[in-house]
Write a structure and sequence with these properties.
Order of helices and strands: HHHHHHHHHHEEEEHEHEHHHEEHH
Strand order of the largest sheet: 4-3-2-1-5
Number of domains: 4
Largest sheet: 5 strands, antiparallel
Structural class: alpha+beta
Number of helices: 17
Distance between the termini: 145 Å
Strand content: 5-15%
Shape: rod-shaped
Length: 433
């Protein structure tokens, strides 16, 4: 091309020095015009055609890759290829031709890098939608592969600029392993942790996890090679290093969510001074409670039959068996929860006593709610204990509670009243003085 331009300029009568400069400038101008034209064709013709074909395909691959601009980036290979294979025509055996050749090789690497990056993003999106990979940290693998591709691209660019073999640079990097491990420590740890999390199915996107040391208590919204992003219940976000989920302890509530129930474990502390045997009058009154009618009748018959065969004197409450208010109340709690529509009847169901404490006798309720959503679950739990706390006095029982200021003021008022009454009763009449 420069020779054709030079011969045409010589025919016009220009000097040899001017012809040489003009020939190279003309070749450069035509080369740049070809670059702009091929770039225009790639952006306004090739890229839309590829995108149109991909979006009309029945597979999700085409639509996802078009969404990630894969075809738009891939279309840029056209101008780079056209310029690279025509460079010998415009700059034959010249230093400028060698410079352009290296720049175009670097462009090849960069366009290929951007295209592979878009391909990996599409691959990550496709795999995330696949049923077998739902919730698994696939993003960590694609990010690790992306980092490897970027490192290799950097090596090839350096090799092109220095005109050295890329394999020699890889050998040099092998000798700098310690430095590489130090620089990419977090990335390597994160990648290994991602593999372990995926292999052992320790955490998925959507899991509810708790990790107090990182102020994390909520749903996992993203798992990548460096961090795990958690949206807490107060709508804040906490980021946890991926390798911390392997090296430190955390709680994953997925098992609870998959089981269909959420545990209720709470105790009522009964004042032990209010516990006693049920009198016949009390049993008659408690028999009016529908949930206890069958229980009291059956239990009373069982006790009478036992006492008739084993006890000689039943005039003392300690002799033989008798129903207690705490026992009847425990039966009531059991029957109440058994007929409750929000309590899971097929899972662990306990209404039990715990070891007495200075705060009273703990009557623990250990059941599972069918409702798992936090607000609904708390509402179910509150409704149950609202009812039980209100029902306690009907059984002659009291809940233990430390004295409050109101209690102490009432106690002081009663003491003063009692003292005044005593002084009035025991004071001497005036005539006796």
């Amino acid at each position: 091309m420069p020779q054709l331009i030079a011969s045409w300029l010589e025919e016009l009568g220009l000097s040899e020095s001017l012809v040489a400069v003009a020939a190279h400038l003309g070749a450069l101008l035509i080369f740049l015009l070809l670059a702009f034209f091929s770039l225009w064709v790639a952006r306004h013709w090739l890229s839309p055609v590829l995108k149109s074909f991909s979006t009309k395909s029945a597979s999700d691959w085409g639509r996802v890759l078009a969404e990630k601009n894969f075809f738009h980036r891939l279309a840029h290979l056209l101008p780079v290829s056209v310029l690279y294979f025509t460079i010998d025509i415009f700059f034959p055996d010249t230093a400028s031709g060698e410079v352009f050749r290296r720049l175009l090789l670097i462009a090849f690497v960069l366009v290929g890098l951007r295209s592979l990056d878009a391909l990996l993003q599409g691959l990550n999106l496709i795999l995330a939608r696949h049923p077998l990979a739902t919730g698994k940290p696939i993003k960590g693998y694609t990010q690790a592969l992306t980092i490897i591709i970027y490192v290799l691209a950097g090596i090839f660019v350096i090799a092109i600029i220095t005109d050295k073999s890329p394999w020699g640079l890889l050998t040099l990097m092998g000798g700098l392993t310690a430095v590489i491990l130090l620089v990419f420590k977090d990335t390597i740890l994160g990648f290994i942790a991602s593999v372990q999390l995926s292999a052992h199915d320790m955490v998925r996107v959507g899991d509810w996890i708790s990790m107090p040391q990182y102020n994390a208590d909520g749903d996992v919204v993203d798992v990548n090679i460096h961090t795990v992003k958690v949206q807490n219940w107060d709508r804040t976000y906490a980021t946890i290093p991926t390798y911390a989920l392997v090296s430190d302890a955390f709680t994953n509530w997925r098992g609870m969510q998959e089981s269909g129930g959420r545990r209720i474990m709470r105790a009522l502390y009964i004042d032990m001074n209010s516990i006693g045997f049920c009198t016949p009058e009390m049993l008659v009154k408690l028999s009016e409670i529908e949930l206890l009618q069958d229980y009291i009748a059956n239990k009373e018959q069982e006790i009478q039959e036992y006492n008739a065969g084993h006890v000689k004197k039943t005039d003392n409450w300690v002799n033989g068996r008798h129903q207690t208010n705490i026992g009847v109340f425990r039966a009531y709690v059991t029957n109440y929860l058994r007929q409750h529509p929000k309590i899971h009847q097929e899972m662990t169901f306990l209404v039990r006593h715990l070891q007495p404490t200075p705060q009273g006798l703990p009557l623990e309720i250990y059941v599972f709610s069918r409702e798992q959503a936090w607000a609904v679950y708390e509402g179910v739990q509150a409704d149950i204990f609202d009812h039980l706390l209100a029902a306690l006095p009907h059984f002659g029982l009291r809940v233990f509670q430390y004295p409050s200021g109101f209690d102490l003021r009432n106690a002081g008022f009663k003491a003063e009243t009692l003292q005044a009454a005593n002084e009035k009763v025991f004071s001497l009449p005036d005539r006796a003085k």
